[in-house]
Amino acid sequence: MTVYIIRRLLYTVPIVVGVLLLTFFLFSVVGGDISQQIAGKNADAETIAEIRHEYGFDKPLFWSLDSQFIDHFRKALTFNFGRALDREKISDKILRGVGPSLSLTVPMFLGTLVLSISLALMVAFVRGSWLDVAAVVLCVAGMSIPYLSFIIYGQYIFAYKLGMFPIMYMPEESLLTSLALPVLIGIAAGLGGNLRFYRTIVLDEMRSDYVRTAFAKGLSTSKVLFKHVLKNALIPIITSVVLSIPYLFLGSLLLERFFGIPGLGSLMIEAIASRDFFIINAMTFIFSLLIVVFTLLTDICYAWADPRIKLE
Amino acid sequence: MKKRTAQLRLVIMTLLVPAAFLPPGCRKKPEPSASERMVIRVPMFSKIQTLDCGNLTDVYSIGVASQIYESLYEYHYLKRPVELVPLLAEGMPDISEDHLTYTIRIRKGIFYHDDPCFPDGKGREVKAGDFVFALKRIANVKYMSQRWTDWNGRIVGLDDFREYTKGFRRESDVDYSVEVEGLRALDDYTLQLKLTKPWPQLIWYLASAVTAPVPREAVDYYGKDILYHPVGTGPFRLKVWERGFYIELVRNENWHGGTYPTEGEPSDWENGYLEDAGKPLPFADAIVYRIIEEFQPAWLMFLRGDLDIMQIFKDNFAQAVNPDTLTATPAMAERDIRLLVFDDPSVFWIGFNMQDPVLGRNKPLRKAVSRAIDRQAAIRLFFNGVHKVAYGYLPPGLEEYDPNIVHTDYAKYDPAEARTLLQEAQRIHGGPIPPLTIAIPGTSNLDRQIGQFLQKYLEDVGLQLRVDYMDWPTYLDGLNKGKLQIFFSGASPSIPDSLDMLMGFCSWNWGYGGNHFFYSNPEYDALYRKAEPMFPGPERTRLCRQMERIMLEDYPAVFLNHRVSIAIIHGWYKNAKPHEFSYNTAKYRRIDLEKRNRYKELLNELKKKPK
User: Fold this and answer.
1) Are B324 and B341 in contact, with CB atoms under 8 Å apart?
2) How far is CA A235 from CA A232, A298, A308, in A?
C-alpha cells in the first residue's frame, strides 16, 4: 500500500503542473492585462502603466527568468499568492474565509449525511410501503425546488415571520444562533437528492442473498441494516462522501450571500465577477490539491472498507 | 466500548474543528449593543475597497472614510444651494488677486486618532505639513492613486515631483522632503498652494476626504496595509472591519468637537432638521455598516428594525412607495416609516463615438437615434417612473442647470421625424445605414432588458442595432481607446461644479477618463477656456449653459434620464437630510432610542390590529 500511496503522490506532480499550465493559459494568456480595470475609470495612462508594472503585466509571458509564467509557478509552489486586486494579501483572504465556510458546510454536510443515510436505510427496509412512496415523492419534490427558494422562504418564515433566528449573521449574537438557520436550510435542501441516492444503493444491497440469509438466521433488523447492509454499501457512499469534502472548503455561495457569512464561496464568486485572476488562480490551485489528496484518500478508504480491494 | 468512545470523539472533533478556524470576527463579541447605546445601522450593497484617503474612488469607501477623516472644509449640512464652511481650516482661504495663491490657516489643537503608529499610541497634533504630505503622496506615481487626474497640471511643481518619483522602485523610497514650489507649509499652521492657472474648483476638492491630512507615521508603520488602518481626525474611528461584511466605527472621544448647525433652509424647521440646533456632535456612539449583497435579507432586516435606513429597489418599490405621491404606503406609514425623495445629480446617456465613420459625420443619423427613443417609457419601465427625463446634460442640483432646458426638443420622442432624418442620413452616408453596435457594460437581466428596449425603438424607425454586453474591463478599454461605436454610460458630478462635467466634451480631454465621445468643437473649447478661471457667478453660468446648448446641437449623445433617489427610513432616524455632495453626515444623525426600543411592541400591536 505504501508503494501505491507514493506512486499516487507522484502522480500529483503532472496533475498540478497541468492545472497551473491551464490556469496560466486561461488567465494570463487569454484573460490578459487587467491593469486598466484596477486603475478605474478615471485613471490616466501613467497610473495604468505603473499598475501594469506593479502587478507584473509588463513582464514577458514566457521567455525570461522573470516571466509571468515563472512567476505564476513560483507563487503557487511557495503558497505565496501575492496580493489581490484590492491590494489585500490573498493568503489572508483565504485564511479568513475558510473558518466561516467550514463552520457552515461541515455541520451541513454531516447533518445531511447522517440524516439521509439513516432515512435511506429506513425507507429501503419498508420499500413499497406508503412511507417509502411518500419519501420518494418528497425527495423528488425537494430536488425539484430550487435551492434559492429554500433560502428565501426559509429566511422569510423562520427568521423574519417567526423570529426564531437572526435574519443575517450578527457578530454580536452567538455563532450557534447565527449559523443554525443556514445549516438547517442547507440540510433540508440537500436531503432530497442524497436520500434518494442512498436509498438506491441500500435497495441494491437489500436484494442480496446475504441479507435474506442474515434475516433467516434470526438477526435483528438493526443489526442487519447497520452492520451488514451499511458496510456492504460503503463503497459508493465513500466515493460520494470523501470526494465531497474538498467542496466543503469552497463554501456555499448562496447561503453565504443571503446570511452574510464571510466565507470562501463569496470570495470565489466575487473574484470571478471582478476578474481577480490572482484569487481565482490561488483558489483553483488549492482546490486541485484538495481533489488530488481526497481522491487518494478515497482509494485508501476502499481498501479499508472492502478487504477484497488491494492497492497495488 | 473503547472503539465506540473513539468514534464518538472523532465525530465531536469533526464538528468542532471548523470553530477553531474562526477569525475573531466570527466569535461572540464582548460588547453587545445595548438598547441605550446609540448605534446607527446602515446597509451597504457593495464591499468597500479601501480606507486609505489618498485613493478613495467609490462612493461606499468615501462614505465610510468621510466619517473617519476630515478635510480643510466641509459642506454646510443644511444650507442649499450647497455652501462650504471651514472644518480643519480656521477660515476660508486667502486668495491672491490673480487667483493663483491660496493661503490657508489651519486650526490648532486638532489631534489624530490614537493609533499604534504614534509613540505611546497617542495621536499627535495635525500640522500643515501633513496636508503637503497627503497631496505629494497622491502625486507619487508609485503610490498609484486614482485621484491624480484631479491634480494633474494644477499645482506649481507638483507634476515635476511626480516625474521625480518615477525614478524610484517603491512608494516608500520616495523622499517627500523634496520641495514643491506650489505646495508648502509656511509654518506648522499655514498651508500655501500655488496654482499654475486659476482653478476655482479647488475649494471643492479641499472639502473631500481625499485631501485629508495624512500622518507620515501611519504610512511608514502600516506600509501597503494602510488601506485597512485609517488614521484620521474625524468624529469616528475604525473599530472593526470584517472585510466584506461588517464595519464598525466608534465615537472618537478625543475629537475636537463641533455643534449641529443653527441655520438652514426655511423648510428645515418644519421637517425637524433644526430640532437639534446648537447641540454638540456627534450624537451616535457608533455606526455599523452591514454589507448585504442580496436585497431580501436587507429588506427583512429593515422591516424588523435591525437597520435604520434602506434604499428603494424595484423589488420593494410597490410595497414601500405610493407612486402617485412618492410617499410611503399606508403599510409603511403605520410602522412610522417614511421616504426621503431627492434629486441625485446624475445623467445617463447613449454616447456616440464621434470618430466613427458612420456616426461621426452624420448628425441627422445621431439626431434620428435621439428622436427614436422614448425616454418616458424607459423611465417607466426601468426606474418605476421616478427618474426625470434628461432634456440636457447638466443635472438638476447644479447651479448651472438650466431650468428652461425642459422647453427644448433635444429629448423629444418623435418616430416620424426620426424616419425623415434617417432618409437624410442615408443620403449623407451614400446608402442604407449599416447595423449600429452599442456596448452595454454588464450582462445582468436589467442590462439585457435595456439592450432589447433600445433595439426595439430603433427598429421601429428602421435602424438595426446590435448589442454587445461586455464585462467592465473590456468595456472600459474600448471606451478609453475609442473602440466603441455607441456606448451606454452615465456620470455623477463629484463636486457641485458644472465645469467638472463639461470637461467631458473638451477636445484636449479625449480618451482615458475624459471625453469618451471623442467630440471636438472649437467653439465649445473656447467657451470652456473662458469659463474655466471664473468663480461661480451669472457670467459663468451663462457660459456653461451656452456650452451645453452648443454640444446638444451636435448630438454627440442621447441623454436619457437624471436619477431621483429614494431612501426609506424609520421614524427614529433623525436629521437625515439628504445632501447631494457631502459624505461626512453621520455625525449629524441621531437615533430616537425610545422610539426604536418600542418598535417591537409596535409590530406586535400591528399584528393584533384587525385587518
Assistant:
1) no
2) 7, 9, 12
- The residue among A77, A109, A139 that closes a domain is A77
Tell me which DSSP letter residue B46 carries. Answer: S
Q: Which residues of A43-55 are buried (b: 16+ CB within 10 A; e: fewer)?
A: bbebbbbbbbbbb
Does the N-terminal peptide bond of residue B403 adopt cis geometry, omega within 30 degrees of 0? Answer: no
Please indicate if any CB of chain B lies within 8 Å of the CB of A179: no
Is B27 in CB contact (< 8 Å) with chain A? yes
Structural domain boundaries, residue A34: 2-77
Residues A60 and A129 occupy one common structural domain: no
Is B85 touching A (CB cutoff 8 A)? no
Tell how strand B236-242 and strand B84-86 pair up: unpaired
Would you say residue A254 has pLDDT above 80? yes
Which of the pair, B324 or B68, is modelled with greater confidence? B68
pLDDT on residue A115: 93
Contact by Cβ (8 Å): B415, B422 = no
pTM for this entry: 0.84
What are the residues facing B41 on neighbouring strands?
Answer: B288
Bridge partners (DSSP) of residue B611 are none
Count of other CB atoms within 10 angstroms of residue A157: 11
Position A45 in a domain: yes
- A88 assigned to some structural domain: no
Query: B146–A48: do the CB atoms touch at under 8 Å?
Result: no
Going by C-beta distance under 8 Å and a sequence separation of 6 or more, which residues neighbour residue A276?
A: A84, A85, A86, A270
A30 touches chain B (CB under 8 A): no
Contacts of B269 (CB under 8 A, 6+ apart): none
Tell me, yes or no, whether A128 and A230 share the same domain.
yes
Examine residue A310 and state whether it is found in any structural domain, yes or no: no
Q: Check whether residue A148 and residue A249 sit in a common domain.
A: yes
- Whether residue A124 is found in the same domain as residue A188: yes
Same-domain check for residues A205 and A57: no
Beta-carbon contacts of A189 under 8 Å, excluding residues fewer than 6 positions away, are: A142, A145, A147, A150, A151
Question: What value does the mean pLDDT take over residues B458-464?
Answer: 96
- In the listed set A25, A50, A77, which residue is the last one of a domain according to the structure? A77
Same domain assignment for residues A73 and A98: no
How many domains does one find in chain A? Answer: 2
Q: Say yes or no: A103 and A175 in one domain.
A: yes
B101 Cβ contact partners less than 8 Å away, ≥ 6 residues apart: B95, B192, B193, B194, B195
CB atoms within 10 A of CB B112: 25
Q: Are residues A23 and A139 in the same domain?
A: no
Kindly list the residues from chain B whose CB atom is less than 8 angstroms away from the CB atom of residue A93: 243
Structural domain contains residue A44: yes
